[in-house]
Structures are given as structure tokens and as C-alpha cells.
């Protein structure tokens, strides 16, 4: 996974992740709802971009939420909206929004 702070700086974004997080408490409910919608939309855009980088054999990280945290896996097949990923010997259908490329596939 890429470091978000360096990623935003490389793209010329004047706001660091810590600066954005510090501004969140000052937002009202409507602004928070708008922010949530924008973040979800951006996740879908990034997931759409990752689809074209996925091929069988590519190492990925699956962000499974609170219970599963992050699991490493290997892409077996890429479908229209999901990828089949082998995690610990079991194949799972995983939406692209939960996938990111493993920057260091040698790491366990």
C-alpha cells in the first residue's frame, strides 16, 4: 500500500491527511454527509482504476473491514465487478473497492 501523505504531496495536493483529519471535527452533519459521499465516490474511482492492473498471479491486499483487517492474497481471476482472490488456500470473490496492490509481494 502507498503512504497517503507522500502520495498527496507528490500530486501537488496542499492538504496532508493529518490536516484533513484535523478539520473534520469542525464540520456539521450536512458537510460530513457530503464528505462521506465524496470519499465513497473516490474509492469507487480508485477501485475502477485498479481493475485494469489486476491479472491472475498478482499479489493484492484485501481490506476486509473491522473483523478481517487486512489479508494478503493472490488474484486467480478478474471478473467484471469482482476478483477471485486466493487467501490462505481459499478462493473468495472480492469487490474491487476492497482491493489494493501489494507493493511488497515478498513480505508475509
Description:
The protein has a five-stranded antiparallel β-sheet. It has one domain: SH3 type barrels (Roll), CATH 2.30.30. It has helices at 4-10, 17-23, 29-51, 65-68; strands at 59-63, 70-78, 82-87, 90-95, 99-101. It is of the alpha+beta class. A hairpin with a 2-residue loop joins β3 and β4. The protein is built from four helices and five strands, in the order αααβαββββ. Helices cover 38% and strands 27% of the residues.
Short characterization:
The chain has 108 residues and is an alpha+beta fold.
What sort of overall outline do the alpha carbons produce when their principal axes are compared? elongated
Count of the separate structural domains: 1
Count of individual helical segments? 4
Tell me the distance between the termini: 14 Å
CATH class: Mainly Beta
Order of helices and strands: HHHEHEEEE
User: In percent terms, what proportion of residues is strand?
Assistant: 25-35%
Major pleated sheet: 5 strands, antiparallel
Structural class: alpha+beta
Strand order of the largest sheet: 4-3-2-1-5
Compute the average pLDDT: 83
Roughly how much helix do the residues carry, as a percent range? Answer: 25-40%
Rg calc:
16 Å
Contiguous uncertain segments of 5+ residues = 1-10
- The CATH topology name reads SH3 type barrels
User: Which architecture name does CATH use?
Assistant: Roll
Please report the total strand number as a whole number: 5
Amino acid at each position: 500500500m502507498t503512504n497517503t501523505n507522500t502520495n498527496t504531496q507528490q500530486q501537488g495536493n496542499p492538504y496532508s491527511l493529518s490536516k484533513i483529519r484535523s478539520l473534520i471535527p469542525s464540520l456539521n452533519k450536512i458537510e460530513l454527509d457530503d464528505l462521506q459521499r465524496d470519499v465513497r465516490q473516490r474509492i469507487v474511482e480508485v477501485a475502477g482504476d485498479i481493475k485494469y492492473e489486476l491479472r491472475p498471479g498478482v499479489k493484492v491486499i484485501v481490506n476486509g473491514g473491522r473483523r478481517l483487517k487486512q489479508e494478503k492474497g493472490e488474484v486467480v481471476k478478474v471478473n467484471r465487478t469482482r476478483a477471485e482472490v486466493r487467501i490462505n488456500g481459499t478462493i473468495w470473490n472480492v469487490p474491487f473497492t476492497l482491493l489494493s496492490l501489494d507493493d511488497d509481494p515478498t513480505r508475509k
